[in-house]
Design goal:
heterodimer; A: about 260 residues; alpha/beta; 9-stranded mixed sheet; about 30% strand; globular; B: about 325 residues; Rossmann fold; 2 domains; 5-stranded parallel sheet; 9 helices; electron transport (chain A); ETF_beta_N (chain A); Electron transfer flavoprotein subunit beta (chain A); transport (chain A)
Chain lengths: ~260, ~325
Protein backbone atom coordinates (compact mmCIF):
# COMPACT_ATOMS: atom_id res chain seq x y z
CA UNK A 1 0.00 0.00 0.00
CA UNK A 2 1.31 3.42 -0.94
CA UNK A 3 0.59 5.82 1.88
CA UNK A 4 1.14 9.57 1.85
CA UNK A 5 0.95 11.82 4.89
CA UNK A 6 0.86 15.61 4.63
CA UNK A 7 2.08 17.27 7.77
CA UNK A 8 2.92 20.68 9.12
CA UNK A 9 5.39 21.73 11.75
CA UNK A 10 3.67 23.92 14.34
CA UNK A 11 4.35 25.58 17.68
CA UNK A 12 4.07 23.28 20.68
CA UNK A 13 0.58 23.81 22.13
CA UNK A 14 2.10 24.89 25.45
CA UNK A 15 3.75 27.91 23.80
CA UNK A 16 2.59 31.42 24.56
CA UNK A 17 2.10 33.74 21.61
CA UNK A 18 3.88 37.07 21.30
CA UNK A 19 3.79 39.53 18.43
CA UNK A 20 6.82 41.38 17.11
CA UNK A 21 6.68 43.83 14.21
CA UNK A 22 3.19 42.72 13.33
CA UNK A 23 4.11 39.05 13.17
CA UNK A 24 3.91 36.09 15.50
CA UNK A 25 7.37 35.75 17.05
CA UNK A 26 9.16 32.42 16.68
CA UNK A 27 11.90 33.34 19.17
CA UNK A 28 12.72 30.46 21.47
CA UNK A 29 9.65 28.54 20.35
CA UNK A 30 9.61 24.77 20.48
CA UNK A 31 8.27 23.18 17.30
CA UNK A 32 6.43 19.89 17.01
CA UNK A 33 4.53 17.95 14.39
CA UNK A 34 1.04 19.44 14.38
CA UNK A 35 -0.75 17.10 16.86
CA UNK A 36 -3.52 16.22 14.39
CA UNK A 37 -0.89 15.38 11.75
CA UNK A 38 0.85 13.19 14.31
CA UNK A 39 -2.30 11.03 14.48
CA UNK A 40 -2.13 10.81 10.67
CA UNK A 41 1.53 9.71 10.79
CA UNK A 42 0.78 7.08 13.44
CA UNK A 43 -2.19 5.72 11.50
CA UNK A 44 -0.09 5.56 8.33
CA UNK A 45 2.57 3.52 10.08
CA UNK A 46 -0.07 1.16 11.48
CA UNK A 47 -1.49 0.69 7.97
CA UNK A 48 1.96 -0.16 6.71
CA UNK A 49 2.54 -2.60 9.56
CA UNK A 50 -0.73 -4.33 8.73
CA UNK A 51 -0.81 -4.20 4.94
CA UNK A 52 2.82 -3.63 3.97
CA UNK A 53 3.90 -0.82 1.66
CA UNK A 54 5.57 2.51 2.09
CA UNK A 55 4.86 5.70 4.01
CA UNK A 56 5.96 9.01 2.50
CA UNK A 57 5.68 12.17 4.59
CA UNK A 58 5.39 15.53 2.86
CA UNK A 59 5.67 19.01 4.30
CA UNK A 60 5.80 22.57 3.08
CA UNK A 61 7.92 24.80 5.22
CA UNK A 62 11.27 26.40 5.97
CA UNK A 63 14.42 24.44 6.75
CA UNK A 64 13.44 23.87 10.37
CA UNK A 65 10.45 21.81 9.17
CA UNK A 66 12.84 19.04 8.15
CA UNK A 67 12.96 18.13 11.83
CA UNK A 68 9.26 17.27 11.74
CA UNK A 69 9.86 14.92 8.81
CA UNK A 70 12.79 13.30 10.62
CA UNK A 71 10.58 12.75 13.66
CA UNK A 72 7.92 11.12 11.47
CA UNK A 73 10.63 8.94 9.90
CA UNK A 74 11.89 8.03 13.36
CA UNK A 75 8.33 6.91 14.17
CA UNK A 76 8.45 4.67 11.11
CA UNK A 77 7.78 6.64 7.91
CA UNK A 78 10.06 5.58 5.04
CA UNK A 79 10.86 8.77 3.19
CA UNK A 80 10.20 12.46 3.19
CA UNK A 81 9.62 15.34 0.83
CA UNK A 82 10.05 18.96 1.90
CA UNK A 83 9.02 21.87 -0.27
CA UNK A 84 10.67 25.16 0.61
CA UNK A 85 8.52 28.10 -0.45
CA UNK A 86 10.62 30.87 1.04
CA UNK A 87 11.06 32.41 -2.40
CA UNK A 88 7.31 33.02 -2.55
CA UNK A 89 6.91 36.80 -2.38
CA UNK A 90 3.48 36.92 -0.83
CA UNK A 91 2.04 35.17 2.20
CA UNK A 92 0.52 31.87 1.04
CA UNK A 93 -3.05 30.92 1.95
CA UNK A 94 -4.80 27.56 1.95
CA UNK A 95 -5.43 27.80 -1.80
CA UNK A 96 -1.66 28.20 -2.34
CA UNK A 97 -0.69 25.35 -0.03
CA UNK A 98 -3.18 22.84 -1.48
CA UNK A 99 -2.05 23.67 -5.02
CA UNK A 100 1.61 23.16 -4.12
CA UNK A 101 0.90 19.87 -2.36
CA UNK A 102 -1.11 18.60 -5.34
CA UNK A 103 1.67 19.63 -7.73
CA UNK A 104 4.28 17.94 -5.55
CA UNK A 105 2.34 14.68 -5.48
CA UNK A 106 1.76 14.74 -9.23
CA UNK A 107 5.21 15.79 -10.34
CA UNK A 108 7.20 13.67 -7.95
CA UNK A 109 5.03 10.76 -9.13
CA UNK A 110 4.15 9.95 -5.55
CA UNK A 111 1.84 6.98 -6.00
CA UNK A 112 -0.86 6.70 -3.37
CA UNK A 113 -3.69 4.45 -2.30
CA UNK A 114 -4.46 6.63 0.67
CA UNK A 115 -3.48 10.10 1.83
CA UNK A 116 -3.71 11.04 5.49
CA UNK A 117 -3.72 14.56 6.90
CA UNK A 118 -4.55 16.08 10.25
CA UNK A 119 -8.01 17.58 10.16
CA UNK A 120 -6.57 20.97 11.08
CA UNK A 121 -3.35 22.59 12.19
CA UNK A 122 -3.25 23.98 15.70
CA UNK A 123 -1.74 27.25 14.47
CA UNK A 124 -3.97 28.50 11.61
CA UNK A 125 -6.82 26.16 12.52
CA UNK A 126 -8.51 26.59 9.18
CA UNK A 127 -9.19 22.88 8.47
CA UNK A 128 -9.04 23.47 4.71
CA UNK A 129 -6.00 21.85 3.15
CA UNK A 130 -7.11 18.19 3.38
CA UNK A 131 -10.46 18.57 1.59
CA UNK A 132 -8.94 21.04 -0.89
CA UNK A 133 -6.16 18.60 -1.76
CA UNK A 134 -8.64 15.73 -2.26
CA UNK A 135 -10.63 17.87 -4.69
CA UNK A 136 -7.51 18.87 -6.64
CA UNK A 137 -6.50 15.20 -6.89
CA UNK A 138 -10.08 14.24 -7.80
CA UNK A 139 -10.43 11.66 -5.04
CA UNK A 140 -13.05 11.45 -2.27
CA UNK A 141 -12.26 12.50 1.28
CA UNK A 142 -13.63 11.81 4.73
CA UNK A 143 -12.77 14.31 7.43
CA UNK A 144 -12.36 14.02 11.22
CA UNK A 145 -12.05 10.24 11.37
CA UNK A 146 -11.58 8.43 14.69
CA UNK A 147 -11.28 4.88 13.32
CA UNK A 148 -9.99 3.46 10.05
CA UNK A 149 -10.21 -0.06 8.62
CA UNK A 150 -9.03 -1.07 5.19
CA UNK A 151 -9.84 -4.44 3.68
CA UNK A 152 -8.65 -4.89 0.13
CA UNK A 153 -10.07 -1.90 -1.66
CA UNK A 154 -12.77 -1.27 0.91
CA UNK A 155 -12.48 1.54 3.44
CA UNK A 156 -14.60 1.76 6.62
CA UNK A 157 -14.26 4.66 9.00
CA UNK A 158 -15.82 6.20 12.03
CA UNK A 159 -16.19 9.94 11.63
CA UNK A 160 -16.64 12.38 14.50
CA UNK A 161 -19.53 14.72 13.74
CA UNK A 162 -19.56 17.21 16.58
CA UNK A 163 -19.79 14.45 19.17
CA UNK A 164 -21.90 11.98 17.19
CA UNK A 165 -20.29 9.20 15.18
CA UNK A 166 -21.01 8.39 11.54
CA UNK A 167 -20.04 4.97 10.21
CA UNK A 168 -18.94 5.53 6.61
CA UNK A 169 -17.92 3.15 3.84
CA UNK A 170 -15.86 4.09 0.84
CA UNK A 171 -13.05 2.73 -1.29
CA UNK A 172 -9.45 3.45 -2.21
CA UNK A 173 -8.00 5.78 -3.33
CA UNK A 174 -9.13 8.24 -0.68
CA UNK A 175 -7.95 11.08 1.52
CA UNK A 176 -8.85 11.06 5.21
CA UNK A 177 -8.24 13.68 7.89
CA UNK A 178 -7.44 12.60 11.43
CA UNK A 179 -9.42 13.68 14.46
CA UNK A 180 -8.25 13.28 18.02
CA UNK A 181 -9.04 9.80 19.34
CA UNK A 182 -7.92 8.06 16.13
CA UNK A 183 -4.91 6.56 17.90
CA UNK A 184 -2.22 7.17 20.46
CA UNK A 185 0.93 8.21 18.57
CA UNK A 186 4.09 6.31 19.48
CA UNK A 187 7.27 7.96 20.64
CA UNK A 188 10.22 7.53 18.30
CA UNK A 189 12.62 4.88 19.59
CA UNK A 190 16.35 5.53 19.79
CA UNK A 191 17.13 3.07 16.95
CA UNK A 192 14.28 4.72 15.05
CA UNK A 193 15.90 8.11 15.49
CA UNK A 194 19.27 6.76 14.29
CA UNK A 195 17.69 5.13 11.25
CA UNK A 196 15.69 8.23 10.39
CA UNK A 197 18.88 10.20 9.78
CA UNK A 198 19.68 7.98 6.83
CA UNK A 199 16.23 7.74 5.30
CA UNK A 200 15.78 9.45 1.91
CA UNK A 201 14.64 13.04 1.93
CA UNK A 202 13.80 15.00 -1.21
CA UNK A 203 14.21 18.76 -1.02
CA UNK A 204 12.22 20.79 -3.50
CA UNK A 205 11.85 24.46 -4.20
CA UNK A 206 9.01 26.17 -5.97
CA UNK A 207 11.05 26.32 -9.20
CA UNK A 208 11.19 22.53 -9.25
CA UNK A 209 7.42 22.40 -9.61
CA UNK A 210 5.56 23.30 -12.73
CA UNK A 211 3.40 26.01 -11.24
CA UNK A 212 3.07 29.60 -12.28
CA UNK A 213 2.98 32.22 -9.57
CA UNK A 214 -0.39 33.48 -10.67
CA UNK A 215 -2.00 30.07 -10.34
CA UNK A 216 -0.90 29.68 -6.74
CA UNK A 217 -1.25 33.33 -5.70
CA UNK A 218 -3.13 33.66 -2.43
CA UNK A 219 -6.76 34.75 -2.75
CA UNK A 220 -6.80 36.22 0.74
CA UNK A 221 -4.42 38.27 2.82
CA UNK A 222 -3.84 39.07 6.46
CA UNK A 223 -4.09 42.77 7.28
CA UNK A 224 -3.68 42.60 11.05
CA UNK A 225 -2.43 40.25 13.77
CA UNK A 226 -3.32 40.99 17.39
CA UNK A 227 -3.59 39.47 20.83
CA UNK A 228 -6.93 39.22 22.62
CA UNK A 229 -7.47 41.82 25.36
CA UNK A 230 -6.14 40.68 28.72
CA UNK A 231 -8.84 39.56 31.09
CA UNK A 232 -9.30 41.52 34.31
CA UNK A 233 -8.72 39.46 37.42
CA UNK A 234 -12.03 38.06 38.59
CA UNK A 235 -13.75 37.85 41.92
CA UNK A 236 -12.83 35.03 44.28
CA UNK A 237 -15.79 34.40 46.55
CA UNK A 238 -15.28 34.10 50.29
CA UNK A 239 -17.06 32.67 53.28
CA UNK A 240 -19.08 29.54 53.94
CA UNK A 241 -19.13 27.31 50.87
CA UNK A 242 -22.94 27.15 50.86
CA UNK A 243 -23.17 30.93 50.90
CA UNK A 244 -20.60 31.09 48.10
CA UNK A 245 -22.77 28.85 45.94
CA UNK A 246 -25.78 31.04 46.65
CA UNK A 247 -23.81 34.23 45.95
CA UNK A 248 -22.43 32.85 42.70
CA UNK A 249 -25.87 31.99 41.37
CA UNK A 250 -27.08 35.50 42.26
CA UNK A 251 -24.05 37.08 40.57
CA UNK A 252 -24.60 35.05 37.41
CA UNK A 253 -28.22 36.15 37.36
CA UNK A 254 -27.96 39.81 38.38
CA UNK A 255 -24.42 40.94 37.53
CA UNK A 256 -23.29 38.76 34.62
CA UNK A 257 -26.87 38.21 33.44
CA UNK A 258 -26.11 34.87 31.81
CA UNK A 259 -28.78 32.80 33.60
CA UNK B 1 -21.50 48.64 -3.04
CA UNK B 2 -24.35 46.19 -2.92
CA UNK B 3 -23.57 42.49 -2.90
CA UNK B 4 -25.51 39.33 -3.53
CA UNK B 5 -24.93 36.96 -0.66
CA UNK B 6 -25.54 33.22 -0.45
CA UNK B 7 -25.94 31.43 2.88
CA UNK B 8 -25.99 27.64 3.14
CA UNK B 9 -28.45 26.62 5.83
CA UNK B 10 -26.99 24.11 8.25
CA UNK B 11 -29.49 21.49 9.29
CA UNK B 12 -29.06 18.94 12.04
CA UNK B 13 -31.71 16.29 12.74
CA UNK B 14 -34.13 18.18 10.52
CA UNK B 15 -33.68 21.36 12.53
CA UNK B 16 -32.14 24.62 11.42
CA UNK B 17 -29.02 25.41 13.42
CA UNK B 18 -28.53 28.77 15.07
CA UNK B 19 -25.37 29.42 13.10
CA UNK B 20 -27.49 29.68 9.95
CA UNK B 21 -29.50 32.51 11.47
CA UNK B 22 -26.26 34.15 12.62
CA UNK B 23 -24.93 33.79 9.06
CA UNK B 24 -28.05 35.52 7.74
CA UNK B 25 -27.39 38.44 10.08
CA UNK B 26 -23.84 38.70 8.72
CA UNK B 27 -25.20 38.34 5.19
CA UNK B 28 -27.61 41.25 5.65
CA UNK B 29 -24.78 43.36 6.98
CA UNK B 30 -22.47 42.82 4.00
CA UNK B 31 -25.25 42.79 1.36
CA UNK B 32 -25.58 46.60 1.66
CA UNK B 33 -28.80 46.61 -0.27
CA UNK B 34 -28.06 43.50 -2.32
CA UNK B 35 -30.04 40.33 -2.17
CA UNK B 36 -29.60 37.55 0.41
CA UNK B 37 -30.33 34.00 -0.69
CA UNK B 38 -30.47 31.02 1.66
CA UNK B 39 -30.09 27.51 0.28
CA UNK B 40 -31.48 24.57 2.20
CA UNK B 41 -31.20 20.89 1.28
CA UNK B 42 -33.27 17.82 2.13
CA UNK B 43 -36.83 16.50 1.78
CA UNK B 44 -37.86 18.73 4.73
CA UNK B 45 -36.33 21.85 3.17
CA UNK B 46 -39.65 23.61 2.57
CA UNK B 47 -40.47 23.47 6.29
CA UNK B 48 -37.44 25.63 7.00
CA UNK B 49 -38.29 28.49 4.67
CA UNK B 50 -40.11 30.65 7.24
CA UNK B 51 -37.35 31.02 9.84
CA UNK B 52 -34.86 31.74 7.04
CA UNK B 53 -37.11 34.46 5.62
CA UNK B 54 -37.83 35.89 9.07
CA UNK B 55 -34.10 36.20 9.73
CA UNK B 56 -33.21 38.01 6.54
CA UNK B 57 -33.34 35.78 3.46
CA UNK B 58 -34.93 37.51 0.45
CA UNK B 59 -34.95 34.28 -1.45
CA UNK B 60 -34.83 30.66 -0.34
CA UNK B 61 -33.56 28.01 -2.73
CA UNK B 62 -34.81 24.59 -1.74
CA UNK B 63 -33.31 21.37 -3.02
CA UNK B 64 -35.67 18.67 -1.80
CA UNK B 65 -33.85 15.48 -2.84
CA UNK B 66 -34.23 12.92 -0.07
CA UNK B 67 -30.64 11.84 -0.86
CA UNK B 68 -29.63 15.08 0.87
CA UNK B 69 -31.44 14.31 4.15
CA UNK B 70 -28.17 12.85 5.41
CA UNK B 71 -25.08 14.91 4.71
CA UNK B 72 -22.56 13.34 2.37
CA UNK B 73 -19.68 15.29 0.89
CA UNK B 74 -20.46 14.40 -2.71
CA UNK B 75 -24.23 14.87 -2.45
CA UNK B 76 -23.98 18.29 -0.83
CA UNK B 77 -21.11 19.18 -3.16
CA UNK B 78 -23.27 18.57 -6.24
CA UNK B 79 -26.18 20.55 -4.81
CA UNK B 80 -24.10 23.44 -3.46
CA UNK B 81 -22.10 23.78 -6.66
CA UNK B 82 -25.31 23.96 -8.66
CA UNK B 83 -26.73 26.57 -6.27
CA UNK B 84 -23.60 28.70 -6.55
CA UNK B 85 -23.65 28.52 -10.34
CA UNK B 86 -27.35 29.40 -10.30
CA UNK B 87 -27.02 32.42 -7.97
CA UNK B 88 -23.53 33.58 -8.96
CA UNK B 89 -23.07 35.25 -5.56
CA UNK B 90 -20.49 37.88 -4.59
CA UNK B 91 -20.28 36.45 -1.07
CA UNK B 92 -20.85 32.93 0.32
CA UNK B 93 -21.27 32.04 4.00
CA UNK B 94 -21.55 28.62 5.63
CA UNK B 95 -21.27 27.61 9.27
CA UNK B 96 -17.89 26.52 10.61
CA UNK B 97 -19.59 23.26 11.52
CA UNK B 98 -19.12 19.61 10.59
CA UNK B 99 -20.88 20.37 7.29
CA UNK B 100 -19.23 23.69 6.51
CA UNK B 101 -15.74 22.50 7.43
CA UNK B 102 -16.10 19.41 5.25
CA UNK B 103 -17.79 21.00 2.25
CA UNK B 104 -16.56 24.58 1.89
CA UNK B 105 -12.83 23.91 1.33
CA UNK B 106 -13.68 21.32 -1.30
CA UNK B 107 -16.04 23.70 -3.12
CA UNK B 108 -13.44 26.48 -2.85
CA UNK B 109 -10.81 24.22 -4.42
CA UNK B 110 -13.10 23.27 -7.30
CA UNK B 111 -14.11 26.84 -8.05
CA UNK B 112 -10.61 28.24 -7.45
CA UNK B 113 -11.77 30.45 -4.59
CA UNK B 114 -10.19 31.69 -1.43
CA UNK B 115 -11.86 30.75 1.85
CA UNK B 116 -11.53 32.32 5.26
CA UNK B 117 -12.63 29.81 7.84
CA UNK B 118 -13.70 29.93 11.47
CA UNK B 119 -14.67 33.60 11.38
CA UNK B 120 -15.77 35.20 14.66
CA UNK B 121 -16.47 38.73 13.38
CA UNK B 122 -17.58 40.24 10.09
CA UNK B 123 -17.12 43.97 9.52
CA UNK B 124 -17.25 46.49 6.73
CA UNK B 125 -14.25 48.81 6.58
CA UNK B 126 -13.79 51.27 3.73
CA UNK B 127 -16.04 49.23 1.51
CA UNK B 128 -14.20 45.98 2.18
CA UNK B 129 -15.43 42.96 4.09
CA UNK B 130 -13.00 42.32 6.93
CA UNK B 131 -13.06 38.97 8.71
CA UNK B 132 -11.64 38.42 12.18
CA UNK B 133 -10.63 34.87 13.06
CA UNK B 134 -8.64 33.24 15.83
CA UNK B 135 -5.27 31.63 15.28
CA UNK B 136 -3.48 29.38 17.77
CA UNK B 137 -6.95 28.50 19.06
CA UNK B 138 -7.58 32.06 20.21
CA UNK B 139 -4.17 32.87 21.66
CA UNK B 140 -4.12 35.49 18.89
CA UNK B 141 -6.40 36.83 16.15
CA UNK B 142 -5.97 37.92 12.54
CA UNK B 143 -7.99 40.15 10.27
CA UNK B 144 -8.32 38.87 6.74
CA UNK B 145 -9.58 40.32 3.48
CA UNK B 146 -10.00 38.97 -0.03
CA UNK B 147 -7.61 40.10 -2.74
CA UNK B 148 -9.77 38.79 -5.52
CA UNK B 149 -12.66 36.58 -6.44
CA UNK B 150 -15.82 35.60 -4.65
CA UNK B 151 -15.73 36.22 -0.92
CA UNK B 152 -16.20 32.91 0.90
CA UNK B 153 -16.17 32.30 4.65
CA UNK B 154 -17.23 29.77 7.28
CA UNK B 155 -18.62 31.42 10.41
CA UNK B 156 -18.06 30.05 13.87
CA UNK B 157 -21.28 29.30 15.75
CA UNK B 158 -22.21 31.48 18.71
CA UNK B 159 -20.12 34.53 17.82
CA UNK B 160 -22.11 36.70 15.45
CA UNK B 161 -25.37 37.94 16.87
CA UNK B 162 -28.44 36.75 15.02
CA UNK B 163 -31.07 39.36 14.29
CA UNK B 164 -34.56 39.49 15.73
CA UNK B 165 -37.04 37.40 13.80
CA UNK B 166 -39.44 39.53 11.75
CA UNK B 167 -42.52 37.34 11.59
CA UNK B 168 -44.05 39.31 8.72
CA UNK B 169 -41.02 38.88 6.49
CA UNK B 170 -41.49 36.62 3.47
CA UNK B 171 -39.05 35.25 0.92
CA UNK B 172 -39.34 34.10 -2.68
CA UNK B 173 -39.09 30.35 -2.71
CA UNK B 174 -37.50 28.61 -5.64
CA UNK B 175 -37.05 24.90 -6.03
CA UNK B 176 -33.90 23.68 -7.74
CA UNK B 177 -33.60 20.17 -9.11
CA UNK B 178 -30.28 18.43 -8.62
CA UNK B 179 -29.36 14.99 -9.85
CA UNK B 180 -27.88 12.85 -7.10
CA UNK B 181 -27.44 9.43 -8.68
CA UNK B 182 -26.25 6.68 -6.33
CA UNK B 183 -22.90 6.33 -8.10
CA UNK B 184 -22.14 10.00 -7.43
CA UNK B 185 -21.76 9.31 -3.73
CA UNK B 186 -18.30 7.91 -3.15
CA UNK B 187 -18.75 7.80 0.61
CA UNK B 188 -21.79 6.10 2.10
CA UNK B 189 -23.06 6.78 5.62
CA UNK B 190 -24.10 3.38 6.99
CA UNK B 191 -25.17 4.51 10.42
CA UNK B 192 -25.09 7.44 12.82
CA UNK B 193 -24.45 6.81 16.51
CA UNK B 194 -25.81 9.62 18.67
CA UNK B 195 -23.48 10.45 21.52
CA UNK B 196 -23.89 14.14 22.25
CA UNK B 197 -25.49 14.84 25.61
CA UNK B 198 -29.14 15.88 25.36
CA UNK B 199 -28.50 16.95 21.81
CA UNK B 200 -26.67 20.11 22.92
CA UNK B 201 -23.60 20.45 20.78
CA UNK B 202 -20.48 21.84 22.46
CA UNK B 203 -19.73 24.38 19.74
CA UNK B 204 -23.22 25.87 19.96
CA UNK B 205 -23.92 25.43 23.66
CA UNK B 206 -24.77 28.64 25.49
CA UNK B 207 -23.60 27.09 28.75
CA UNK B 208 -20.78 24.58 29.24
CA UNK B 209 -19.92 22.74 32.43
CA UNK B 210 -16.45 21.33 32.02
CA UNK B 211 -14.39 18.88 34.07
CA UNK B 212 -10.66 18.30 34.45
CA UNK B 213 -8.44 15.82 36.24
CA UNK B 214 -10.17 16.91 39.43
CA UNK B 215 -13.27 14.88 38.53
CA UNK B 216 -11.11 11.80 39.22
CA UNK B 217 -13.23 9.23 37.32
CA UNK B 218 -15.91 8.77 34.66
CA UNK B 219 -18.45 8.72 37.50
CA UNK B 220 -17.07 12.03 38.68
CA UNK B 221 -18.67 13.66 35.64
CA UNK B 222 -22.17 12.85 36.94
CA UNK B 223 -22.66 15.98 39.06
CA UNK B 224 -21.38 18.05 36.11
CA UNK B 225 -23.85 16.37 33.78
CA UNK B 226 -26.68 17.09 36.20
CA UNK B 227 -25.79 20.77 36.36
CA UNK B 228 -25.38 21.01 32.58
CA UNK B 229 -28.68 19.31 31.94
CA UNK B 230 -30.49 21.58 34.42
CA UNK B 231 -29.11 24.65 32.62
CA UNK B 232 -29.70 23.27 29.12
CA UNK B 233 -25.97 23.22 28.54
CA UNK B 234 -23.34 20.76 27.41
CA UNK B 235 -20.54 18.96 29.24
CA UNK B 236 -16.93 19.53 28.20
CA UNK B 237 -13.56 18.34 29.46
CA UNK B 238 -9.89 19.21 29.61
CA UNK B 239 -7.20 17.15 27.93
CA UNK B 240 -6.22 15.85 31.37
CA UNK B 241 -9.66 14.33 31.89
CA UNK B 242 -9.71 12.83 28.38
CA UNK B 243 -6.17 11.45 28.61
CA UNK B 244 -7.06 9.86 31.95
CA UNK B 245 -9.94 8.08 30.21
CA UNK B 246 -12.70 9.78 32.26
CA UNK B 247 -14.55 10.84 29.11
CA UNK B 248 -14.59 10.73 25.33
CA UNK B 249 -12.16 12.85 23.31
CA UNK B 250 -15.19 14.37 21.59
CA UNK B 251 -15.64 16.44 24.76
CA UNK B 252 -12.13 17.87 24.82
CA UNK B 253 -11.83 21.64 24.86
CA UNK B 254 -8.50 23.25 24.10
CA UNK B 255 -5.99 23.94 21.37
CA UNK B 256 -6.31 20.29 20.48
CA UNK B 257 -10.01 19.59 20.74
CA UNK B 258 -12.76 22.13 20.47
CA UNK B 259 -12.57 25.87 20.83
CA UNK B 260 -15.70 27.19 22.49
CA UNK B 261 -17.17 30.59 23.28
CA UNK B 262 -20.31 30.02 25.35
CA UNK B 263 -22.06 32.71 27.40
CA UNK B 264 -21.14 30.81 30.55
CA UNK B 265 -18.24 28.40 31.07
CA UNK B 266 -18.05 26.59 34.40
CA UNK B 267 -14.62 24.96 34.85
CA UNK B 268 -14.65 22.27 37.54
CA UNK B 269 -11.40 20.76 38.76
CA UNK B 270 -9.51 22.19 35.79
CA UNK B 271 -6.13 23.70 36.58
CA UNK B 272 -5.98 25.77 33.41
CA UNK B 273 -3.04 24.60 31.31
CA UNK B 274 -2.34 27.07 28.51
CA UNK B 275 -3.56 24.63 25.89
CA UNK B 276 -6.94 24.42 27.66
CA UNK B 277 -7.18 28.18 28.21
CA UNK B 278 -6.73 28.68 24.47
CA UNK B 279 -9.90 26.71 23.89
CA UNK B 280 -12.20 28.54 26.29
CA UNK B 281 -10.81 31.86 27.50
CA UNK B 282 -12.91 33.83 25.01
CA UNK B 283 -16.09 32.61 26.72
CA UNK B 284 -18.23 35.52 27.83
CA UNK B 285 -18.35 34.62 31.53
CA UNK B 286 -16.05 32.09 33.18
CA UNK B 287 -16.55 30.44 36.56
CA UNK B 288 -13.72 28.41 38.08
CA UNK B 289 -14.13 25.86 40.83
CA UNK B 290 -10.85 24.40 42.05
CA UNK B 291 -9.29 23.25 45.32
CA UNK B 292 -6.00 24.94 44.47
CA UNK B 293 -6.21 28.73 44.90
CA UNK B 294 -3.03 29.08 42.79
CA UNK B 295 -4.54 27.27 39.78
CA UNK B 296 -4.03 29.37 36.61
CA UNK B 297 -7.71 28.96 35.70
CA UNK B 298 -8.51 31.63 38.33
CA UNK B 299 -6.57 34.17 36.26
CA UNK B 300 -9.10 34.01 33.45
CA UNK B 301 -12.15 33.44 35.65
CA UNK B 302 -14.72 36.16 36.28
CA UNK B 303 -15.85 34.34 39.41
CA UNK B 304 -13.97 31.78 41.42
CA UNK B 305 -14.79 29.40 44.22
CA UNK B 306 -11.88 27.75 45.98
CA UNK B 307 -13.24 24.41 47.03
CA UNK B 308 -13.91 20.78 46.25
CA UNK B 309 -15.99 20.44 43.09
CA UNK B 310 -17.83 17.44 44.56
CA UNK B 311 -19.09 19.72 47.31
CA UNK B 312 -19.56 22.90 45.28
CA UNK B 313 -21.21 21.58 42.09
CA UNK B 314 -24.17 19.87 43.81
CA UNK B 315 -24.68 23.01 45.92
CA UNK B 316 -24.73 25.08 42.74
CA UNK B 317 -27.20 22.72 41.12
CA UNK B 318 -29.45 23.09 44.16
CA UNK B 319 -29.23 26.89 44.08
CA UNK B 320 -29.92 27.01 40.33
CA UNK B 321 -32.94 24.78 40.86
CA UNK B 322 -34.28 27.24 43.43
CA UNK B 323 -33.64 30.15 41.11
CA UNK B 324 -35.27 28.51 38.12
CA UNK B 325 -38.24 27.47 40.27
CA UNK B 326 -38.86 31.17 41.08
CA UNK B 327 -39.42 31.98 37.43
Amino acid sequence: MNILVCLKQTFDTEERITIENGRISEDGVEFVINPYDEYAVEEAIRLKEKHGGEVTVITIGPERAEQALRTAMAMGADKGVIVDIEELEEEPDEHTIAKILAATIKEEDLAFDIILCGYMAVDDGSAQVGPRLAELLEIPHISTITKLDIDGNKVSVEKDVEGDVELIDSSLPILVTAQQGLNDPRYPSLPGIMKAKKKPLTRLELDDLDLDEEEIAAKTETIDVFLPPKKQAGKILQGDIKDQAKELVQLLRNEAKVI
Amino acid sequence: MSRNVLVLADVRDGKLRNVSLESLAAARKVAEGGSVTAAVFGSFAKDLVDPLAEHGADKVLVVTNHELDQYTTDGYFAAFKKVIEHINPDVIFTGHTAVGKDLSPRIAARLGLGLVSDVTRVELEEGRIVFTRPIYAGKAFVKKVFKEGTVFATLRPNNIEKGEADSGRKANVEELRVDVPADLLRTIVKDVVKKSTDGVDLSEARIIVSGGRGVKSADGFKPLEELASLLGGAVGASRGACDSGYCDYALQIGQTGKVVTPDLYIACGISGAIQHLAGMSNSKVIVAINKDPEAPIFQVADYGIVGDLFEVVPLLTEEFKKLLAQN
